[in-house]
Amino acid sequence: MGRAVTVATCALNQWALDFEGNLERIIRSIDIAKSKGARYRLGPELEICGYGCSDHYYESDTLLHSFQVLEKLLESPVTQDIICDVGMPVLHRNVRYNCRVIFLNKKILLIRPKISLANAGNYRELRWFTPWSKARHVEEYFLPRIIQEVTGQETVPFGDAVLATKDTCLGAEICEELWAPNSPHIEMGLDGVEIFTNSSGSHHVLRKAHTRVDLVNSATAKNGGIYILANQKGCDGDRLYYDGCAMISMNGETVAQGSQFSLDDVEVLVASLDLEDVRSYRAEISSRNLAASKVNPYPRVKVNFALSCPDDVAVPTCMPIQWRHHSPEEEISLGPACWLWDYLRRSKQAGFLLPLSGGIDSSATACIVYSMCHQVCLAVKNGNADVLADARRIVNDETYIPEDPREFCKRVFTTCYMASENSSQDTCNRAKLLAEQIGSYHINLNIDVAVKAVVGIFSVVTGRTPRFSVHGGSSRESLALQNVQARIRMVLAYLFAQLTLWARGMPGGLLVLGSANVDESLRGYLTKYDCSSADINPIGGISKTDLKNFIQYCIENFQLTAQRSIMSAPPTAELEPLVDGQVAQTDEADMGMTYAELSVYGKLRKIAKAGPYSMFCKLINMWKEICTPREVASKVKHFFRMYSINRHKMTTLTPSYHAENYSPDDNRFDLRPFLYNTSWSWQFRCIDKQVNAL
Fold it and tell me: What is the C-alpha to C-alpha distance for residues 473 and 329, in angstroms, rounded to an integer?
């Protein structure tokens, strides 16, 4: 009868400007989709060139190479007898658009430009693309000669149209359009479109996946229909991790779920669905049918092809499933681990080096690397040939098979405890025990000789010797002496990253990992160019609170019992002299605020868009049970002073995995001045006036 349509969506680990690799992954996904009986295949946003090309979109080379890849796709036998929906930039009448190119059997059916561009947070699409503003309008697009020679077409439809096959009607959305208040699927559904497609470039944020799933399911809950979502996955060259979650939904319920985190470069989801279920669902929604009778119709591109087979009575159709969400602790364990693996294999380095202090942050970073090793061993066990080939290249052994995470960790992960006279034996022991439990190659060294040499140079030149506060020195002297220790650790980290493998008779170099969390970066509680300065930082977008929960998760799931003593110890930088052999310095005392308070300040500043006065007004209600208005005012002023004094540190912040919407990342997410008037005189006066009134 032609009722059961079989469609495919995918999550691809594309890499910006890797046209060769991107083509191979697209071809592989189409081949898998066809082998599973699919008649339509949807891919991620801008999959041909990779989503994260940024200012390379301005280059004509990017457009040229995208069309060259499209030419290869059109010519490939793999793409025959299946509708292929791919993403690439297209220049139409000298305007650059983010487009879907939909083709079948060497003929381009439609080029559909994106209507609503993503331009908030990490997204800057309006910098490179123009939205298509002509609703339900189609123009002629003159194809480049290399495409004309393959398709035999001179022009193809370009614009806001839908496809009418022999058995159904398909309409495309692109990423942000699902999130827009006037999503195209609303009007398309009223106009009889039964299958909606969405190609996305949506990145991971902690606790975000459910929002995306809810949006997809709600898209067809009111209006009926089938919704297919494809997404990019992996690190395509910057701070973001695209978290897959390809899915297919029908009439408000999920029927197929892809993985959120995996090391598979190509993941294809296929579902067979009964169109009559859509039609009967819509038939009883009278309000929908009344609205449909008045809708302005979309241009339809007729396609002499069906997504179903004539004799499909015996074709089994998919049933609704319950979406399984990861806990935040699982997300931290998996997302940054997959990001690290992509970065490691694509940078062609031999592993990581981490300054391991025995505190929560560096220990959490070590656990993420250990989780990465777990993922690699699991992927190899499951037959992932790509991961096995990458692992063998990284360890420089063509016969190697990673089976034990601890053994693999020994090969790719070096940890280093850098002691000084201010370090306690407790942190040294904690770092050593954790290194033993995860299997890293561990180094113990002492930096006192280097510290004394640097301070000695200053003393020779000036005739003055700085002292710590506990020895009678000023706060300026004490801070300078702390910073010398921190910066020497950074220099040594890079030295050992470059030469440790050389000293062990092994090839390659190591990437240096940083371990400053999002709260400390926001407050500026770090030394500029210390161990927070690294190649990449997997926890730079994660709060201290979430990291503590993640540590507990590691104790329970990885049996890393060394983390118990790390969890119970107060966070400390160990940069000031010990008192009776014990640590006298703690992070929260140094900062003048707790990590819990910092998380609140961060969310209000970035997510709630609160300046000093608005933050005070919100907090006097939030904290009315624990603080007086005057105490709230004092806390808010102290935060903004420290934040603004230290904002300059964000300009050199190590590239960090983006995981929180209150990240202070200065690269493109949180754009602020870095030279402030730190007195905030007008703003603080408004607060004082309100305090006095209260």
Answer: 43
